[in-house]
Design brief:
The protein has helices spanning 33-40, 79-91, 168-176, 215-227; strands at residues 6-13, 16-22, 50-56, 62-69, 100-104, 107-113, 120-124, 143-150, 154-160, 187-194, 197-204, 209-211, 235-238, 244-251, 257-265, 267-274. Strands 13-14-15-7-6-5-4-3-2-1-16 form an eleven-stranded mixed beta sheet, sandwiched between helices. The chain starts with 5 loop residues before the first strand and ends in a 6-residue tail after the last strand. Helix content is 15%, strand content 39%. It is built from four helices and 16 strands. Strand 13 and strand 14 form a beta hairpin. It is of the alpha+beta class. It folds into two domains: 6-124 and 267-278, Diaminopimelate Epimerase, Chain A, domain 1 (Roll); 143-264, Diaminopimelate Epimerase, Chain A, domain 1, CATH 3.10.310.10.
């Protein structure tokens, strides 16, 4: 707390932006959904895709990572948010730089701060993404395949001819609310070749709009492309922000990614004090 206000930190992960608070001074129970929406509002608040609270975990040396989408609803985790949380936890001296453990609603995540000027982190996901083909969804012109997978949060992945030609807001919203995705819905990722590289765009549930990047979406896209023989690991993809995120890991003979690893930006943008009238 500072002068009656709340100290907050704004971070960006390849274009996804997040507001962080130190839970040792402003605990989770003091933040309801209305208050979180107000802080994340881009006109009347600080503006963010998500809101996060960091505090000491249940085990010594662990960090509890509470994550909320900008609509104020709690979410299991967020890939780029976790990369940012890793650097923020180190900055707040909650954890060492190497091999920290973040306790999320999706389970424990092993992360670390990477050295160098690029302000990157590494997230190691202890999961094996399983792919399925959702029923009842018809592909449109320029859409070649569609798969569903969960990477801590649910994702649809559509391989398309050109992500630049996709009406992401319209098509993403339609698929996010499709009957096949009920009751929770899913993030919707569009991925395509971009010359010799790959590019992706994402419609995120909870934000209910296109975002500039999606870390777990990149892992989901990699799982689909590797399984279909269109890509190998490590796999780089350019996000809408222009930033590149990397997915690494091991691949079985059947083309299944095991222990996927997400590498990307976690950059501190600003430290500020939000006055009480804007957080009550």
């Amino acid at each position: 707390m500072d002068g009656g206000g709340v100290v907050v930190y704004k971070m960006t992960g390849s274009g996804n932006d997040f507001v962080f608070v130190d839970g040792r001074w402003t605990p989770p129970e003091t933040w309801d959904s209305a208050r979180i929406r107000q802080v994340c509002d881009r006109r009347n608040g600080l503006g963010a895709d998500g809101f996060a609270i960091l505090e000491p975990g249940a085990v010594s040396g662990h960090i509890r990572f509470h994550f909320f989408n900008s609509d104020g609803r709690r979410a299991p985790m967020c890939g780029n948010g976790t990369l940012c949380a890793t650097r923020m936890a180190r900055w707040l001296e909650l954890a060492p730089a190497d091999d920290m453990v973040l306790e999320t609603d999706a389970g424990e995540m092993l992360t670390r701060v990477l050295p160098g000027p690029e302000q990157r982190s590494e997230l190691r996901l202890g999961i094996t993404p399983e792919l399925s083909c959702p029923e009842g969804i018809e592909l449109r012109d320029g859409e070649h395949s569609i798969h569903f997978t969960s990477v801590g949060v649910p994702h649809l992945v559509l391989v398309v001819t050109d992500v630049g030609a996709v009406p992401v807001e319209q098509r993403g919203r339609e698929l996010r609310h499709h009957d096949a995705m009920r009751p929770l819905g899913a993030n919707v990722n569009f991925v395509s070749r971009a010359g010799s590289d790959w590019a992706m765009r994402t419609y995120e549930r909870g934000v209910e709009a296109e975002t500039l990047a999606c870390g777990t979406g990149a892992v989901a896209c990699a799982a689909v492309l590797v399984a279909s023989g269109q890509a190998t690991l490590p796999w780089n993809v350019r996000t809408t922000s222009g930033r590149v995120v990397t997915v690494a890991g091991t691949v079985t003979a059947a083309g299944v990614i095991q222990q996927p690893c997400l590498i990307g930006e976690g950059r501190l943008v600003l430290r500020a004090v939000i006055l009480p009238q804007h957080t009550s």
